[in-house]
């Protein structure tokens, strides 16, 4: 049934987003790169002629990405606003090429800082452009499914680097990764600009052909009543936006805007302060410090695979189960799994004999990432366009994406320092507490947005 569904109406949407997600998967490689590489850089066998890096330098290696991400989110938001989403997507490959070149030729930690900054620029583009691109081209019936692909591709990159980072030579990885932006540029170049962007520029015929492409309609004679209705709604939506006054402070003071901004800030804060991104960044170090008897190199790969299983679970059921229930289950599960990981670390620290339970940290870490992947790590990226008022959708996504990068900087910079000063248990218990608070907020304040039509001013008008 799924293959039949994929082969007819929606396959071009899946194919287009798969092409776009080449850069997303490549970004995932850079997200996970510190996990296997930082332990190497801190060891006597470091490939850097300048010698092993310190704890503070390792924290900057992790967090410099977030500085670039903050700038990249704003930069690419400006680019897609004025030049369109296709141009913005193509330009995300530029810092990606630079970053792997810096890692390839670098001989000290400053080259790595520069590379991580460039990685953040690409990540900012992914955060600010990809969700809006998906919202522009996706049929509302599968928008959640297509939105879930973003985190799946990021985690495909994670699996690759977790597996390859411990076994391939340090300088071989950038040589391999320089291929991906070239493939990305070639494939995305063949995709049409989104119908929304073309209508904003007044290119009506091209917009119609673009929507026909993404709806897999080969000729105008095959246009259905459903297609005509959708295109008319999109034209009306763009016309209404174009005739509206410029965005002003009053637009942010409406109840709908306040609720949308609150939800956007909340889901991005949960995404980061749950600790999942920091755990992905420092998974190798956490496994080394947690006292597991399992080879950390093997454990890294197992954890990454279970993470993808969570992504696939979300992909399969998000448009049936709904956003709210998935977010609630995710926050609850992550909070409990981190509490267990902290308890194991605490008992080990105070001297309890935990022989026979060495597998528990790996299981807790795997459950954290699996349960995070069904909600916390992917839903924020496509729920923001669904909860924001249409007039504020683009700027709301930019604000949320910028805050995401700022929150990420705080967590990724502090996590390794906190793990030294208050141990693993203190660090992950803080994240567990964040999840507990989030559960209450989700229950009482987060609406369900499954199936919401983004091309009308309000679903209540339909």
TrEMBL record:
Keywords tagged on the record: Cell membrane, Membrane, Sugar transport, Transmembrane, Transmembrane helix, Transport
Membrane-spanning intervals of the chain: 58-80, 87-105, 111-134, 146-164, 176-199, 261-286, 298-318, 325-347, 359-383, 395-416, 422-446
Pfam family, any one: Sugar_tr
Subcellular localization, as worded in the UniProt entry: Cell membrane
Keyword Kinase: no
Membrane-related topology note: Multi-pass membrane protein
One GO cellular component term noted in the UniProt record for this chain: plasma membrane
GO MF terms, alphabetically ordered: transmembrane transporter activity
Residue span(s) of domain Major facilitator superfamily (MFS) profile: 1-450
Name of this chain's protein: MFS domain-containing protein
Organism per entry: Anopheles coluzzii (African malaria mosquito)
Lineage, broadest ranks: Eukaryota, Metazoa, Ecdysozoa, Arthropoda, Hexapoda
